[in-house]
Each structure stands twice: as C-alpha cells, then as structure tokens.
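quick q for whoever's on today - can somebody do inverse folding on this one?? i tried earlier but teh output was garbage lol. tokens:
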C-alpha cells in the first residue's frame, strides 16, 4: 500500500479550525441514502474540492473522537495497561487497512459512497445492510449522549457505588433533579430546538464550540492526572489483567467492541474525501488522524486510570464527583459540564444524517423533500428524540451500548464490510495479499464479536 507524501505544514495546519464550517454539511450529504434508481451521491463539482490534507485530518479526528473517549479508561481497567495499549494500536492499524481498502475499491469503480460501494459488490442487499448499520450506529450514539448527560447532571449507580451529579451536589436530592427529569429537561429545552433546524450548515458554530469543549475536557483531565502523579496521589493500577474465578480470559473480549466503536468513522470517509483537492491524499489524512486519536485515547485512558484506579466507572465523568478542596471541586464541575455541553452540541449533528437515512429508507418514493414536508419532518424528528430518551433512561450505562454497537453495526462498518468488498473483488483489482489480509480481518471481527455477544448475554443472565 503506497503512502502519499505528507508535509509538516499539513500537519501543522491541523490545529487550525478553518475548515470546520462546512464539514458537517458534507458529512450528512454523504451518509444519506437515496432511491435505488438514482446515484447515492451526486457528482462532485471540481470547484468544491478545496479542502487540504490538514482540513481532512481535522474532519476525520472529529468523526472519531466522541462518546467513545468516556469508556477508554474503563477499558484499561478491564484489560490492564499493556494489553489495552496493544489493542488500541492494533485496532487503529486494522482501521487504516480497512479504510485503504474502501478508498482503493471506490476509485476502481463508479461508487461515490459507502452504500453505493456495497451495492456495487453485493447488490441492493449490500446497500440496505450498510444503511441499516449506519442508522444503528448513529442512533446508538444519540442514546449514549443522553446517558452521559444524565450521568453529569444526576449521577448514576454502578457496581454498588453511588456517584452524585452536579445538580445533586449543588441543590441536594430532589424529584426535579432525578435522572429521568434532567435528561427530559435537556431533551425538550436544548436538544429539541437544535434538531428542529432544517439545515446542518446552521450547526457549524455549535460544532466548532463542541470541539473546543472536548479539548478542554482532555486538557483539564490530563493536568489533574499529572498533578496527582507529582504529588504521589495516583491510584494503584494493573499492567496486565487479573484473571480469577469471577473473571475469565473470555471476559476480556468485552472490551474489544468498545475500542472498535471508538475508531469507527468509515461512513464519513467518502464525503470527507470528496472535498479534498487530491482525493488520493485521503489515506494520508486518515493515518495522521488515527495516530493523533490513538495517542489521545491512550493518554486519557492512562490518566483516568491513574486518577481513579479500580474505582473507575464505565463513564469516567461519573468519577469527577468528589474533591478534597474547593478548587478541585470547581475543576471537576468544569470537566463534567464542558463535555456534557459538547455532547449536547454534537447531538443534532449526529441526528441530521440519521433522520435523512431513515426518511429515504422508509420513504424512497416520496418526491417532496424532507425539509419541506412538515408532517414527515416532525414525525421522524420527534420519534428519534423520544426513542433515544426512553432508551437512555432504560440502559444503566454506556458500556452496554458500546458493546452492542461494537459487536454488531460498528464491527460490520469498520472491518467486515471492507473485508467482504475486497474478497468479492468485482473489479478484479485485489492482490493475493489483499485477500489474505481481508480474510484475517473479517474472521477476527466475526470471532471477537461472537465471543463478546456470548459473554455479555451470559453475564446478563447471571445478573
């Protein structure tokens, strides 16, 4: 696999946000399926190919880092530091391979989106399977966002430990700051006005703010961990997992889907690539972004594990509820609020392509646009918001959502579908090495997913 040349200047420009205003409009356009008899993405006008490699790096990194970062420290607790580091690197490596396969097979045919590429290889069933997996993955993200928002404002109970939310710390326990009401309040007064916007381009400012808030979260968490290391107040950690009568080797596979979900951004590969001046530079952008995200994941994982040790919750934000002084308490609240607001602003961005996918999946023959059909627009929008709210107050924590998505839809989008495309090889470009690598990738994804699903069902029955 050839690696396009990258410059220091391109990497340096990653830290600037000049391209953020248009990314989400392009992402939503690329993810939306269309009726069978029309192209899944209109031909890209060369004049719109204005994005640089640095802009693509920022777009890919934004697509990767989301709610997944909250459960990375818990994955280190399950696996131990060394196996977790190895797994993060390995999943990032496989992600690079799968994206390279997607891009190469896309350029060899007439496809312009993930769904159309699957349709080219497997017909309508391939396109439908891709659309369904994208919808499941995006809906899972919406549910996780609301679970985390509930954790921040109203706390949660996990492993016999009760962690208070910000509202309970400030005002005490009342009926109006219970988990169900805090999530409902944010859904009605914050999320609903945002998801009612008809154009995703209207969210460009909130998208930029959400990224800044995510950086604030990572920065403050890292500083707190470094201070704890200097003062010798870090918690005991494990380099390797402890296997005993209650924890078997197979239980370690439950952390794999979490990392798979954390690196799944494949449905955004084509729309981001379509904006590049040279689409062939996409793989360079992906590799830089994967390296940056892998470093960020491991840093937040190790710092979170050092801060809280075996007391870590599946959502690390729940651990930021105790401090010995006022300054520490303020920092804890800033960390939690910054990421909660970040997720509120990201919520409508994830909702937009999901709503479009559902509309065109359920109503492929409707001539009227979703934006102009008030009844259809409001019906799908309200159904998604109500369903995600009910699921958020039903599931106890985000770990279960991560495991489900990582074992099903995310595993298919990230590894199984790209490998299957290479094995199908409808354009006859796959080498023997490609097919061997694709076979290994598909087998690993299927086996680990089956084991994780089996262990999760077994644990659920025991509980």
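ok took a stab at it. sequence:
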């Amino acid at each position: 696999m050839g690696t396009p040349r990258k410059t220091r200047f391109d990497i340096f420009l990653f830290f600037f946000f000049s391209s953020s205003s248009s990314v989400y409009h392009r992402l939503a356009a690329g993810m939306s399926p269309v009726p069978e008899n029309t192209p899944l993405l209109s031909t890209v006008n060369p004049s719109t190919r204005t994005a640089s490699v640095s802009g693509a790096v920022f777009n890919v990194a934004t697509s990767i880092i989301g709610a997944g970062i909250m459960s990375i420290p818990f994955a280190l607790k399950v696996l131990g530091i060394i196996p977790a580091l190895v797994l993060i690197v390995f999943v990032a490596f496989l992600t690079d391979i799968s994206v390279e396969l997607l891009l190469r097979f896309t350029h060899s045919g007439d496809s312009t989106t993930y769904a159309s590429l699957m349709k080219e290889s497997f017909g309508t069933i391939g396109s439908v399977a891709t659309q369904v997996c994208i919808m499941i993955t995006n809906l899972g993200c919406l549910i996780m966002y609301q679970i985390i928002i509930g954790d921040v404002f109203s706390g949660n109970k996990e492993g016999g430990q009760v962690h208070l939310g910000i509202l309970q710390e400030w005002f005490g326990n009342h009926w109006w700051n219970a988990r169900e009401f805090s999530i409902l309040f944010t859904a009605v007064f914050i999320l609903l006005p945002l998801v009612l916007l008809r154009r995703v381009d209207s969210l460009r400012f909130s998208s930029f703010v959400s990224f800044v808030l995510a950086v604030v979260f990572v920065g403050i968490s890292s500083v707190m961990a470094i201070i704890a290391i200097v003062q010798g107040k870090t918690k005991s950690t494990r380099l390797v997992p402890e296997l005993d009568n209650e924890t078997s080797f197979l239980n370690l596979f439950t952390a794999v889907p979490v990392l798979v979900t954390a690196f799944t951004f494949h449905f955004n590969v084509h729309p981001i690539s379509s904006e590049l001046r040279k689409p062939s530079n996409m793989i360079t952008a992906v590799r830089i972004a994967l390296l940056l995200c892998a470093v960020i994941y491991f840093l937040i994982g190790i710092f979170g594990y050092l801060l809280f040790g075996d007391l870590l919750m599946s959502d690390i934000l729940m651990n930021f509820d105790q401090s010995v002084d006022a300054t520490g308490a303020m920092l804890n609240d800033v960390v939690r609020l910054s990421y909660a607001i970040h997720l509120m602003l990201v919520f409508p961005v994830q909702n937009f392509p999901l709503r479009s996918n559902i509309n065109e999946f359920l109503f492929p023959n409707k001539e009227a646009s979703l934006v102009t059909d008030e009844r259809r627009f409001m019906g799908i929008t309200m159904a998604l918001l109500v369903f995600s709210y009910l699921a958020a107050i039903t599931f106890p924590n985000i770990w279960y959502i991560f495991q489900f998505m990582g074992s099903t839809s995310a595993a298919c989008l990230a590894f199984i579908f790209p490998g299957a495309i290479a094995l199908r090889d409808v354009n006859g470009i796959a080498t023997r090495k490609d097919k061997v690598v694709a076979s290994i990738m598909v087998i690993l994804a299927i086996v680990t997913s089956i084991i994780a699903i089996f262990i999760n069902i077994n644990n659920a029955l025991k509980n």
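fwiw The radius of gyration is 22 Å. also The chain has one domain: 30-462. so keep that in mind when u check it
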